[in-house]
Amino acid sequence: MVARRRLMHSRVEREVDRFLNALYQVGEEIRRTRRLVELEHGPDLARIFDVQLAMLEDEQIRDQTVTRIRQELSPAESAFSSTMAVHKRTFEKIENEYLRARVGDVRDIEHQVLVRLAGGELGGLQSIRANTIVVARDLLPSEAVQLGRRLIKGLVTEQGAATSHTSIIARSLGLPTVVGAQTACSSIASGDNLVVDADEGVVHVRPKIDTLRYYKTALRRQRQRERDLRLRRDLPAVTLDDTEITLMANVDLPQEIEAAIDNGARGVGMFRTEFLYLGYRLPTEADQLNAYRQIAEAVAPWPAVIRTLDLGGDKLTHVLDTAHEANPFLGWRGIRICLDNLDLFKTQLRALLRAGVHGDVQILLPMVSDVEEIRRARDVIEETKAELRREGTAFGEACKVGIMIEVPSAAILVAQMAAEVDFLSLGTNDLTQYTLAVDRGSAKVAQLYDPLHPAVLRLIKAVADAGFGAGIPTSICGEMAGDPKAVLLLLGLGIRILSLSPGLIPEVKEVVRVLELDHARDVASRCLELESGSAVRRHLDGTTSR
Length: 546
Ligand code: PEP
Ligand code: MG
Hints:
Blueprint: H1 12-41, H2 43-46, H3 50-56, H4 59-72, H5 76-93, H6 97-100, H7 103-117, E1 132-136, H8 141-144, E2 152-157, H9 165-172, E3 177-178, H10 184-187, E4 194-197, E5 202-205, H11 209-231, E6 246-251, H12 256-262, E7 268-272, H13 285-299, E8 304-307, H14 335-340, H15 342-355, E9 361-365, H16 371-391, E10 401-405, H17 408-412, H18 414-418, E11 423-426, H19 428-436, H20 454-470, E12 474-476, H21 484-492, E13 497-500, H22 505-513, H23 517-529, H24 533-541
Parallel strand pairs: 1-2, 2-3, 6-7, 6-13, 7-8, 8-9, 9-10, 10-11, 11-12, 12-13
Antiparallel strand pairs: 4-5
Helix pairs in contact: 1-4, 1-7, 3-7, 4-5, 5-7, 13-15, 15-16, 21-23
């Protein structure tokens, strides 16, 4: 609420200056953050700030506010709020869902300028100084991508769980992260020293000297191990009985490609394209072609498996108007959104097919729950190819098309699904959440979320068998592919391709190189018969690699 009062005539010009100065200050803050994000994450992500900068530089917004100050003798706060109210209403009426969702940016800019006018500093991510550990109740994945390693050394949130997309992004950024630390905000004060032990999921608040000493030594050891593993990165990922395992990289942010190559990835097993959609305008076909082409060329001759847009659930709901569902994870998500927005889908498909000229680009469809969705998506792909052909635009005729198996119906009917596609990719993050009816982002039920639950393992086995039966590759791209403890089991279940966070590849390769498949198969068949995830865990803990 902004109080109504009228200015004295003599104060008007000073008030105009105060307003213009606040606009300038907020613009400078955002530009500073934009520069940092661009340095760390490249131009695609930096574009998320452009909508706010465009608003701050918008002549209409500025002139209308100044006119209100001068003609209505309104203080800057109420003049600006009235101007922004008109803009909010305009945005809310826009047909295009993407632009309509930008009303959030209007609100945010209004808030930032009002805080400035009140003489305050912004308390958000933009005001963060060096060597900070961010402690928050919760963070959106789109906010998480703004955390840069230069300033931020770790992240602790009260909400969320290990496979929520905020955690996945924080991992992609290489940030030590503990989620689900339920009393973090009340027990940690600004300025406290913290140790974030992401491996154990523990935060030490105001650590004692002994604890600090312990972690300093542990950190040194870990760095040394990373260096040792790096020296071994070119060794093949083969088991003791000479079976080659393909280790590919999951890529969430385009700049991770370098880490993928550095860690010896055999291509990209899943590129989550959602994060190209953070900017204030949808990425054009040219923007996307550019991003996909770079990835395809960087990993050639290995494949670049690029997933079509998987919005919804906890991901970027601001991009489309998906926020009003009671159960977004069961709602308008992934392929469902794409099949309802053919323009959006076709723009992405055109870019993917065209990037196929520059490497082995493979198209991965997310959240498939019914075979009809595959057929419809394949029809759209064929239509898109026909359009490109008619125009004489070059594209990869042979681009393979695969699906994510992450919904139980797809895992149960996998034989029928497999007959329609060129490859399968198990999304165990979602498969676990949907099989066990446990929200993957909820700290409250995090102890029930267990990809090692035998119910999930049986579905993985069914999918691996069906892929084998159909003669098509079957990979795992859920987070469990990067869990050294799960690797023996996954190989025993019949999986031969793992796609994981680039930084985890060397560690997983070490596990692969010391195991025998016969032994892995024995362990897997025993685990399939167990009654719970904890029984599986106990069994794995008592088992050595061979
Ligand atoms: C998955 O569900 O396992 C997966 C890889 O997709 P995402 O984490 O993006 O939902
Ligand atoms: Mg998924």
